[in-house]
């Protein structure tokens, strides 16, 4: 099943908006998949789903925002969103996406409790494409049912890549983070940021880690990497993306990407 979204503001700078993906969540199938084609730069409005949702694009970049943080899925990865979590989605540099909606039964009762970015295996990619190209009400005892079971198993086994950007809870820290998200290249040191928040350096670092689970330095590294990936998905060169995001050179950005992947999927020795 394919749904197309066209810009409602053709010829204007404003990005197109989509209220939500048009699927009947009461579809009597444990896993339902649709193709979504859209104009690059499309964003959804804030919404939620009663089922667990998996979002996987053919290329480009998908960015998911919730009140708790930001998750970014580059090519080869997918966003996994728990049920009833309000979120908005933006797509950059990609024109087709597959959205899978899974019931608790499809996941064997193991419904995710938080958003995450997961790796998409070749097997999962093929299964999602095949289901999306077939009937929504597939034969559960036939090919469609076998593909759905395979896709659900691959989703359950998919390793997570830890590039989430969690948001702190306190007003002052959230304000600082939102300012950085607008201008990731800001190069102030820890003392400067602590002064802006109005606390000591030690209090700043301790509070930031307690509220996000990350050190401020790691949070800022992730922000810059994700910002650079978004710029590249929109067509910027590696050099321009690296500079705008605050990297010293394109090689510094490449090294960060390699390190992130290596830490997520370590090679057995």
Classify the helix fraction into a percent range: 25-40%
SSE-based structural type: alpha+beta
Q: Overall 3D geometry?
A: globular
Instruction: Please give the oligomerization state of what you see.
Output: single chain
Mean of residue pLDDT values = 83
Describe this structure in words.
The structure is a single chain. The relative contact order is 0.12. The radius of gyration is 20 Å and the shape is globular. Helix content is 37%, strand content 22%. A hairpin with a 2-residue loop joins strand 6 (61-66) and strand 7 (69-74). With 269 residues, it is an alpha+beta fold.
Write the layout of secondary structure elements.
Elements: E1 2-5, E2 17-18, E3 31-38, E4 43-44, E5 52-57, E6 61-66, E7 69-74, E8 77-81, E9 88-92, E10 96-102, E11 116-119, H1 122-133, H2 143-157, E12 160-161, E13 165-166, H3 171-182, H4 190-197, H5 201-212, H6 216-233, H7 238-245, H8 250-264
Parallel strand pairs: 1-3, 2-4
Antiparallel strand pairs: 3-10, 5-8, 5-10, 6-7, 6-9, 7-13, 8-11, 11-12
Kindly list the characteristics that best describe this protein.
269 residues, alpha+beta, seven-stranded mixed beta sheet, four-stranded antiparallel beta sheet, 13 strands, disordered N terminus
């Amino acid at each position: 099943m394919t749904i197309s979204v066209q810009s409602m503001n053709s010829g204007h700078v404003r990005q197109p908006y989509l209220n939500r993906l048009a699927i009947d969540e009461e579809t009597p199938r444990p896993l339902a998949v649709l193709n979504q084609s859209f104009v690059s730069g499309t964003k959804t409005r804030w919404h939620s789903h009663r089922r667990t949702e998996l979002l996987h694009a053919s290329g480009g970049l998908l960015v998911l925002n919730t009140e708790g943080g930001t998750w970014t899925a580059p090519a080869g990865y997918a966003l996994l969103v728990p049920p009833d979590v309000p979120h908005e989605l933006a797509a950059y540099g990609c024109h087709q996406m597959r959205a899978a909606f899974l019931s608790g039964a499809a996941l064997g009762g193991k419904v995710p409790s938080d958003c995450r970015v997961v790796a998409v295996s070749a097997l999962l990619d093929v299964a999602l494409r095949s289901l999306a190209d077939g009937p929504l009400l597939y034969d559960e005892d036939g090919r469609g049912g076998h593909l759905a079971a395979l896709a659900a198993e691959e989703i359950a086994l998919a390793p997570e890549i830890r590039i989430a950007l969690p948001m702190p809870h306190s007003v002052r820290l959230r304000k600082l983070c939102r300012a950085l998200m607008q201008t990731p290249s800001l190069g102030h040191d820890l003392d400067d940021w602590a002064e802006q928040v109005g606390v000591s350096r030690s209090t700043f670092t301790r509070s930031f880690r307690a509220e996000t689970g990350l050190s401020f330095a790691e949070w800022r590294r992730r922000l810059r990497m994700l910002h650079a990936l978004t710029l590249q998905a929109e067509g910027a060169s590696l050099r321009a993306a690296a500079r705008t995001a605050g990297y010293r050179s394109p090689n510094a950005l490449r090294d960060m990407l390699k390190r992130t992947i290596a830490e997520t999927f370590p090679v057995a020795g």
